[in-house]
Fold Citrate synthase.
Amino acid sequence: QADVFTFDPGFTSTGSCESAITFIDGDKGELLYRGYPIDQLAEKSHYLEVCYLLLYGELPTVAQMEDFEGRVTKHTMLHEQMKNFYSGFRRDAHPMAVVCGVVGAMSAFYHDSTDINDPWQREVATIRLIAKLPTIVAWAFKYANGQPMVYPRNDLSYAENFLHMCFAVPAETYEVSPILSKAMDRIFTLHADHEQNASTSTVRLAGSSGANPFACIAAGVACLWGPAHGGANQACLEMLREIGSVDKVGEAVARAKDKNDPFRLMGFGHRVYKNFDPRAKVMKESCDEVLGLLGIEDNETLKVAKELERIALEDEYFIEKKLYPNVDFYSGIILEAMGFPTSMFTPIFALSRTVGWISQWKEMVEESSRIGRPRQLYTGPTARDYTDVAAR
Ligand code: SDX
């Protein structure tokens, strides 16, 4: 059957490709962004510097970072008319539906950066997406809450700006907590890119047709939403809440192993990692740090998560299937402690991943002009003649 799959330089039929951006060793549990280990970047770098690294391949000098940060800061506002899109949604719409719609609508407002053949327009679109996603996501949160949208501020860092737009209200001053902005920035970094996952492959395939970058990123947002992918962070926290207490964890693990039960441990397992997801390790350490600093060590959800991890990692089913916590297992606990509802977890994942999507899109557009065209293994009926309804 090997001859059924034809190799396509842009895309093989399995949807794989060549890339120099992110490396994963699933057996070792290793993740490198342009060669730098994720745990070092999470500890020593910050999200906008990681954006620069993913986009341009090297860590920036001071001057390069100042220029990049200045360009992003200058593009954080949205066209005022884009506010109208929010009022077209029901207040109880899932924020991912809103973000997907508004990102797609960027094609209609920033058409001066949609020509993918013009390097300058590609660069402007890239900066606009990285700069505006926090505003789009924060405004989706405000819209769901019935609160007025808060404009971005140029005197705040990327993470501080996002938190300020989410939690400030015009009636009073909101001071962004350094603890929360450091935790937020680290969550952005841990989710920035992850090789050819489903949503990144979606962005690449959409981009290979020549579609504009905003439409391609909207396609990535749509794919990420699924509970098997980025939607798992919301599903995981809801699962931990449903388990409710440490004494109920054993029952949940038994259900997860029961083939007749559709219940799965959300935040567990991964197509590539057959060892601990290195992002989950950093996230778990951040949980202890952030909850401790916020004075909520006695967090039942965190206790349930740790007990679930302990039991699962000792269980032969999980050991045999090499199932470990993934990036979504602990992230929701931190986000909830920061004040976000579960519905905001995946939009925050989408915001963080935008730089990975657009970096991969840019790499593909600059290297290949062929449309991706995955093939199939046909299992349907062989050719046959039409029969009139009377003869059926
Ligand atoms: C992300 O690709 C990426 O890089 C994605 C991501 C990124 O950064 O972009 O890392 C982000 O999407 C992380 C994954 C988030 N999803 C979840 O946490 C949902 C729960 N996990 C599972 O649905 C599953 O593990 C997947 C979807 C993550 C992986 O699916 P696979 O590789 O197709 O694994 P599988 O479904 O074939 O499972 C292999 C076996 C199966 O048993 P058998 O059919 O061999 O008997 O392991 C079992 C599964 O039943 N299994 C689980 C399980 N995950 C897999 N059993 C119980 N609980 C689980 N969570």
